[in-house]
Amino acid sequence: DQKLFAGLLIKCVVQLELIQTIDNIVFYPATSKKEDAEHMAAAQGKSKPNLLKQETSSLACCLRILFRMYVDEKRRDSWDAIQRRLLSVCSEALAYFITVNSESHREAWTNLLLLLLTKTLKISDEKVR
User: Fold this and answer.
1) Do 8 and 48 meet the contact criterion of CB atoms below 8 Å apart?
2) Domain Sec7/BIG1-like C-terminal, which positions (predicted)?
3) How far apart are CA 99 and CA 129, in angstroms?
4) How far apart, in Å, are the Cα atoms of 54 and each of 21, 60, 113, 116, 121?
């Protein structure tokens, strides 16, 4: 059991590193690291292995990418598809959050919800309609 757990822990750490690498490639490392630090502060040491980091980091990265693509003039031809994907991800995230019963898990999601709402508020009124 100990060997299996150690193997799973290593895979989780590698997965988190991959998520953070993608985030740093797409966004400036300083921006991503600041947001990630805020998102991760509430998730520190709450589970074995700590999968809240993967959950919150990957969703934060996904949201930042989708929101950036949705306002990028170079991607105007893809805005409809991006909008559908963005609405789907946001809907699934909110539906999942509503089902979370653990207080520590809900706290870990606080910064994700703030990210989602803040990015939504920055979208023009025309796009929101």
Assistant:
1) no
2) 45-128
3) 28
4) 12, 10, 16, 17, 26
Distances (CA, A) of 42 to 57, 77, 80: 12, 38, 34
Buried b (16+ CB within 10 A) or exposed e, 29-67: eeebeebbeebbebbeebeebbebbbbbbbbbbbbbbbb
| Domains of the chain by residue range | 1-48, 50-128
Model-level pTM?
0.70
Over its length of 129 residues, how does the chain's per-residue pLDDT go in tens digits? Answer: 888 888 888 888 888 888 888 887 887 666 656 666 666 665 557 545 678 888 899 999 999 999 999 999 999 999 999 999 999 999 999 999 999 999 989 999 999 999 999 999 998 888 877
CA distance to 1, 12, 15, 17, 73, per residue, from 6 (Å): 9, 10, 14, 17, 46
